[in-house]
Amino acid sequence: MIDRLIEKIKQTDNPSVVGLDTNFDYLPDELRAGVADLRGAAQAIAEFNRNVIDNICDIVPAVKVQIAYYEMYGVEGMKTFAETLAYASKKGMYVMTDAKRNDIGATAECYAKAYLGKTFVNGASETAFDSDFLTVNGYLGSDGIVPFLKWMKECDKGIFVLVKTSNPSSGELQDMRLSDGKTVYEYMGQWVEAWGKNCRGKYGYSDVGAVVGATHPAQAEILRKQMPHTFFLIPGYGAQGGTARDLKVCFDADGMGGIVNSSRGILCAYRQEKYNGKSYSEAARLASIDMKNDLNQAIKG
C-alpha cells in the first residue's frame, strides 16, 4: 500500500494530504442556512466534502478523515463519514481514517476489521468503513498492534502509529527520558520500525508508518535518522504553527518519506483575505496548490 501512495505523491508532485476535519461551523452561510438538527448538519457537511474533493482530487493524492468531527453529529454524522470515504476513493484519492484506535487484543481486532479488514455475518463478509490507512495508538503495546498488522497484510492496507504527536503537551509523556537516556517517543519509534520490517516496499518504506508532528522539528529529526524505513504522516502544518521549513527534517535526502496534513488551512481557505471572492471549493483548490508549492520549495530546495 505504501508504494502506491508514494507513486501517487510522485504523480501529483504533492506530498500533502487534506484533512477533512469538517466542523459544521466551517461551512459557508449558504450551506448552514436553515439547518436545525444533526441530520441537516451531516447532510450539509457531506455536500461540502464532495465539492472540496471534486476540486482537489486531481492535484492532491489523499484525504485524511478525522472521525471525531463526524461522531459528534451522531448516526447521521457517521453516515456522512462513510460516504466521504467512499466518495474520495471513487475520485481516485487514497483515504486515511484518523481514528487513533487501539485497545486490548480482542477489541483491537474489532477496530481492525472495521477500518482495514472485513466483518463476517453468517459466512458473508463486508467492509464497514473502507480505508486505505488508519491511525493507531501504539502506546498500549504490541498485543494491541498485532490485529492491525494481520488485517493490514491480508487486505493490503497501512497504518500510522502515534509516535511524536503535534499537540503542545505531547512532551509530558513522550519526551520523558528513561534510565538509559532514551525518550519514550524514541522507544515507540523503535517499535514501529520493527513492526514494519516484514512489509517494506520497493521504495524502502513499510506499510507501518508513524505520526510525527511538524510542530516538534528537533524530535522529528531524531526520528527520521532512527526510523529510515518508516513513512511519516505529518500533522501540525499551518493552523497548528508548523512550517514547511520545520518539517523538512521529516523527509529523506531524496525528498521522500512523508506526507503532510493540512485541515483548516484548506477547508477554511475561503475565509482568508488571500482568496477573497472565491467559493469555498475554489479556495480549497488554490490553497492546496499554494501548500504544494510551499512544501516542495522547502523539501527540495
Automatic annotation (TrEMBL):
What GO biological process term is on the record, naming one? 'de novo' UMP biosynthetic process
Q: Which residues form a coiled coil?
A: none
Concerning Gene3D superfamilies, the annotation shows:
Aldolase class I
Q: Where is the Orotidine 5'-phosphate decarboxylase domain?
A: 15-278
Enzyme Commission number(s) of this protein: 4.1.1.23
InterPro entries listed in its UniProt record: Aldolase_TIM, OMPdecase_AS, OMPdecase_type-2, OMPdeCOase_dom, RibuloseP-bd_barrel
PROSITE patterns, sorted = OMPDECASE
Which of UniProt's keywords are assigned here? Decarboxylase, Lyase, Pyrimidine biosynthesis
**Entry's Pfam families?**
OMPdecase
- Give, as one word, the top-level EC class: lyase
Q: Which residues form the active site?
A: 100
In which pathway is this protein known to take part?
Pyrimidine metabolism; UMP biosynthesis via de novo pathway; UMP from orotate: step 2/2
Q: Is Lyase among the key words of this record? A: yes
> Protein name, please?
Orotidine 5'-phosphate decarboxylase
Q: Which organism is it from?
A: Candidatus Borkfalkia ceftriaxoniphila
Its taxonomic path starts at:
Bacteria, Bacillati, Bacillota, Clostridia, Christensenellales
